[in-house]
Design brief:
The chain is an alpha+beta fold and about 170 residues long. The chain is built from four helices and five strands. It has a domain of about 110 residues: Nucleic acid-binding proteins (OB fold (Dihydrolipoamide Acetyltransferase, E2P)), CATH 2.40.50.140. The protein is globular, with a radius of gyration of 20 Å. Pfam families: Slp.
């Protein structure tokens, strides 16, 4: 059998196996869910109104107030499982408003979250010395990603040629 024929037979199987390793999305898009980037909503909030969104990113700060908690998040694109991709270019910051009290210790800076919620306008603030417009999301559901979940679906497979020596 030719090498090309073997490749044609096994390539689809290999792709199917790799795709099966990726976890399913955690949230189903509700009717009316939109897919703008946080920076797009910040520039034209009237265009998006009170739409539902599924966004994720890296926690920048957590602030507790009487009756609610606000989380500043640096948004990142989501993969097919809705995991934020922190190695990608940031897509804008936003404020996530949670009902009740969240323990800031459980959401350290840099931890990754995905949430679904409803846009509820914008708020002006600053990032360092620069003025900034934050989209505000009233959170319906959220997920704090663990390191194990972030690795799931990323097979530890490597190919190489050579001699290896291991010391146990």
């Amino acid at each position: 059998m030719h090498l090309r024929t073997v490749f044609r037979l096994f390539a689809p199987l290999a792709l199917l196996l790799l795709a099966a390793c990726a976890p399913a999305p955690i949230y189903k898009a509700a009717p009316g869910t939109v897919t703008p980037l946080p920076m797009q909503v910040a520039h034209a909030p009237e265009q998006y109104g009170n739409s539902s969104v599924i966004w994720g990113g890296s926690v920048v700060a957590v602030r507790n107030f009487p009756g609610h908690t606000e989380m500043e998040i640096l948004g990142y694109p989501l993969d097919s499982s809705q995991r934020p991709q922190p190695n990608a270019q940031g897509i804008g910051r936003f404020i996530a408003v949670f009902p009740g009290y969240l323990e800031a210790f459980n959401y350290p800076n840099g931890s990754l979250v995905t949430l679904t919620g409803q846009l509820s306008g914008t708020r002006t603030g600053s990032v360092d010395q620069a003025a900034y417009t934050y989209p505000v999301v009233s959170v319906a559901q959220s997920h704090l990603w663990t390191q194990a979940e972030l690795r799931q679906g990323h097979p530890n497979v490597s190919f190489g040629v050579g001699v290896g020596v291991g010391i146990h």
